Amino acid sequence: MKKHSKTLLGASLVAAALAISGGALVAQEKPVIATVVKISGIPWFDRMNTGVKAFQAANPDVVATQYGPATADAAQQLQIVQDLVAKGVNALAVVPMDPQVLEGTLKRAMDRGIVVVTHEADNQKNTNADVEAFDNADYGKALNQRLAECMGKKGKWTTFVGSLGSRTHMQWVGAGEANAKQYPDMQLVDPNNESFDDANGTYEKAKEILRKHPDIKGFQTSAGNDVLGVGRAIDEAGLSGKVCLVGTGLPNPSADLLESGAITAIGFWDPKNAGMAMNSIAKTLLAKKPLTNGMDLGVPGYEKVKVTKGAGEGVLIIGNGMVLADKKNYKEYLF
Amino acid sequence: MRTTGGQLVMLIAINVLLLAIGAAISGGSFLSLFNLQSMASQLPEIGLLAIGVMLAMCAGNGGIDLSGIALANLSGVLSAVLVGMFLSSADQEAAFSLAFIAVAVLVGAVGGTLNGLLIARMNITPILCTLGTQMAFTGIAVVASNGRAVTVGSPEPLSSIGNATFLQVPIGFLVFMAAAGLIAALLKFTPYGLWLMLMGTNPRAATYAGFPKARVLVATYAMSGTLSGLAGVIIAARNVNVKWDYGTSYLLIAILIAVMAGVRPEGGYGRVICVVMAAIALQLLSSMLNFGGLSNFVRDFAWGALLLTFLAVGRYDLVGFLTPGTRKKPV
Fold first, then answer.
1. Which residue from A234, A168, A233, A222 is spatially nearest to A197, judged by alpha carbons?
2. Residue A40: its chain B contacts at CB < 8 A?
């Protein structure tokens, strides 16, 4: 056995040597931009991958690919980022699972001269640029405006948030309330119901509200599953089309309720465009070009971005990438 | 006595093969010094946890330690919170580092001892006991940190453990090798090592032979816990922040490494060198697939295939089959 194992070892070593000499010829000249998402194989990030592919197709002078862990674990994402740094990519576009866990690794990446762009992480310190799809106040206002138009700018309405501690949700409904103030006939009743992003719980709560206020005309919701719960309650009460519902949601799960008219419109941002925007920013930074206020990233919804100081040394870039989809156009965004 | 060289040879061959494939698909950059350092610095966290699992498995009677990563996180979080109350990581760097390391390792040792006491004294089945303590440790870490990440910062010398190199070798890796070497020596040269393996082979005989069973068990789980504490230190050193839900996937990977290394799940046999080699093989495989730009689902598949291969090798003595002269008798 000893002799055999030595032969095996020797053969493997020769194979290794050959592989090195052969492989060195295939060096890549184009800058490599690696997009790392929270988890691969879920609709949201598959949609982002569509964006990365679209960016690659439009920019043959760079190599853009998407990576992501198979399990939702910050440690797994960390390993991928670290391997990509070692591989020597030129830029990283990361959607951090947990921004704070990645700080150390992203710092090491930046120390090696790698451009780092992040998304959904406006508290990330070690990044050159963090890009967010929209300003939270603008989004809340847009949702409410859509609701107000559906309600004919009058009647009782209420709001749902994921939880009272959810910062973005409170910003959205806060901006919505501020917007509704311009219409004196709109009357806010029992605001800020907590849904905990649970469609069933939201359904029960929406039924209660429909009983308590039979004349209610509108709902503005925040968490992703809220439209489904409230929509089902409206649908079952036979009020589809009579009560307006506008809130954050995804096209595929909401399709049936949009068709039946129980959901008036859903708001979201398109991960495809967010992926393209991240890559576009990375490419700009790789070309050593500055990021300026009001610049055009060449991506829908990011034509005139707001650039401000970020949490760390880098900048915070805010686009206008919100999408409001209704029965007519949701099919353009099936994910 | 089992002949066990085969497993080690297989593991080494697989490592060499993985290095070769990695070099081939990456155009040589897989073998660059920086990537070797990068992989070596990723290894210690999971490697330390895998050695802990190995120790628990060797103890026999269904021994396993499911609380490893939870305890590592608890060590990091609790130590960061406690030490952070008295010292500032930015101003008193050396004092903070030393105190952080000491408290983290201590928390690990205490947690491990708790496991050992529950299993040895109260006769709780290890899998249930460590599942329970896993949840308890996670719970304490959540409460201690309010569910948020706790900032450790990068005080020297703690930050060097995660980031610096000594003679081009990452210091974290050296710490890991030192710990592995120490455990290996302990198993090989002390009566404790012999007791542990014999007890794992036949617990009843161990009782009649008058082994200090309870003490061996407590020591084993305490060591596993201490290794978790050390893993917690390395996680903190690398990541600047510690959080209670870090590395949830490590639990199963650590067990996977131990089984791949030929540690007998029924107890009584396990070699540290094989665990180290198996951990390296998994690291190489996962880095290689990342280099190749392959989906991480392929990695899960490859790990599974590798594990099944090793189980087959262990079961059917494939190495002996290929070299008939040394073939051992079928059992």
1. A222
2. 295-297
Q: Residues B316, B317, B321, B326: is their CA dihedral positive or negative?
A: negative
How many beta carbons lie within 10 A of that of residue B99, not counting itself? 19
| Predicted pLDDT of residue A25 | 39
End-to-end distance of chain A based on CA atoms, in angstroms?
A: 56
Q: Is the pLDDT of residue A146 over 90?
A: yes
The answer to ipTM > 0.90 is no
Q: Report d(CA A76, CA B59) in Å as an integer.
A: 30
**Residue ranges of domains in chain A, CATH in brackets:** 32-133+270-320 (3.40.50.2300), 136-268 (3.40.50.2300)
Residues from chain B that touch A32, judged by Cβ atoms under 8 A, are none
* Residue range B239-280, pLDDT digits in tens: 888 988 898 889 889 999 998 888 888 888 889 999 999 999
**Residue B108: helix, strand or coil by DSSP?**
helix
Exposure string of B46-77, with b = 16+ CB inside 10 Å and e = fewer, is bbbbbbbbbbbbbbbbebbbbbbbbbbbbbbb
Contact with chain A for residue B47, Cβ under 8 A:
no
Indicate yes or no: CB of A19 within 8 angstroms of CB of B23.
yes
CA–CA min distance B17, chain A (Å)? 6
Question: pLDDT tens digit string along B12-25?
Answer: 988 999 999 888 88
Contact list in B for residue A71 (CB cut-off 8 A) is 248-249
- Chain A residues whose beta carbon lies within 8 Å of the beta carbon of residue B277: none
pTM of the model: 0.79
Give the chain B residue nearest A8 (alpha carbons). B13
Q: Are strands A244-248 and A265-269 parallel, antiparallel or unpaired?
A: parallel
Q: Point out which residues pair with B125 in neighbouring strands.
A: none
CB A252 within 8 A of CB A124: no
> Which candidate in A9, A83, A111 is best for mutational testing of the B interface (most B CBs within 10 A)?
A83
Which of the residues B296, B299, B318, B319 would you substitute to probe the A interface, choosing the one with the greatest number of A C-beta atoms within 10 Å?
A: B296
Catalogue all structural domains in chain B, each as residue range(s) with its CATH number. Answer: 5-319 (1.10.3470.10)
* pLDDT tens per residue across span B122-141: 989 999 999 999 999 999 99
Share of chain A above pLDDT 70, in %: 92
